[in-house]
Amino acid sequence: MLIRFAVGNYRSFNSKQVFSMIAGRQSRHKDHLITANGKRILKGSIMYGANASGKSNFIKAMRFGRSIVFNGTTPESLENQYFRIDPDAKKRCGEFQYDFISNGHSYSYGFSISYEEMKFIEEYLYLCDNNQEYAVFDRTEEGIDTDFDYKGNADRFNIYAEDIADNKSFLMEVTQKKISNLSEFSYFFDAIEWFRTLIFIFPNSRYNDIRRLTEKDSRDRLNKLMKYFDTGIESVESIERPIEDVFVSLPEEVRNGIINAVRAEMDETKDSAEVARESTTNVSINGNMYSFSQNDKGEIVASQIVMDHGNPNALFELDDESDGTQRLFDLVPIYRMGSDNCVILVDELDRSFHTKLTIEFIQKFFEKTKDKPSQLIATLHDANVMNLQNLRQDEIWFIERKDDNSSEIYSLNKFKERFDHSVTKDYLLGRYGAIPVFSNWEVGD
Predict the structure, then answer these.
(1) Does the pLDDT at position 80 exceed 60?
(2) 302-316 pLDDT, tens per residue?
(3) What is the fold, at CATH topology level, of the domain defined by 1-204+337-445?
(4) Distances from the Cα of 297 to the Cαs of 267, 273, 280, in angstroms?
(5) pTM across the whole model
(6) Contact status, residue 238 vs residue 216, Cβ threshold 8 Å
(7) Which residue, among 438, 436, 423, has the nearest Cα to 49 in the 3D structure?
């Protein structure tokens, strides 16, 4: 579970900004939080702000930090990622810090990177149990220290510390070694596994669970959700077609190029995956999502979602559905993901949604994941969802664009509003900031 995230000098974030999932003193909506390691942690947070305030950048910041952990720093990954409005920002470090709970332990992991030199300046992982902190490792440009006794593996730790490249994360490098069975290094693996639980969904993310529709339980679950959210869909199915049929409308040269690319990607995935794992590739074509896989004969087939609205002889493709229904398809895997230990971050969760659907979607997440260590963090525009009958004060956050065009993050909690107060009205009146401010526009301009 995420406890806290901090970021500085990344895109619209200039000075260091801190976002927290620690619950406040409010006693309402107890099913919206979970107690872990002596901490009351929120299971959800909703973020508001005007267009271009930095809401998307907040989610991108968490994803960017994870990417740096896994892939290190490269010229491509760091290009124009600093606060570009300040001409000197490129000379300053980008800062990222994640506090989280993994495998029953509390950790604080963070790093500073140089955008100019494209390397790690600092990196650290602290174990933070029982109100005490111990450095699993603390990396600076001078070297890597630790508070732990690695016993018979101290030499191994020192070799790893000496060999680390300055553009690679020490956390990732250590966990790539075949040492997961060594208890002395278990904290490294706890941390890297937590980063793998981060799930990011953006407005252009597409439904990718098509192959699951071959499983009756998954299909029944999706059908119930579509009916519950009043989409008019009686049932959802997946149909298989030869790969050539999917691209039949394309010129032969283009068609063959795409088919060969799909084959190559599937071969690469299959080679790098476990033998028992099925190799699939998802592709979006003309608004419809296809999942390509190999059948028993070794032929590549395309699975496609189709919907029955009451006439099984006239099935609808995904592109025939409304924008709201298509968005719902993109988001419904959240309920399955939420049954595991994961942190799901959604940008513009309410895009193309009716207010009541957005509220119900969020409430269903809390209901379906009750007592599970999963979290939902989402950006919204619909102020009508900002209702303290549905949300806790500490679950509502704002991002505001300041005069220097940098983003500032703060919680509704700082305004100390009562649970029965109409925060929607005050938000739209500007009491909390984080709303559009329009300049004068004279008639005839």
Answers:
(1) yes
(2) 888 899 999 999 999
(3) Rossmann fold (3.40.50)
(4) 15, 20, 15
(5) 0.92
(6) no
(7) 436
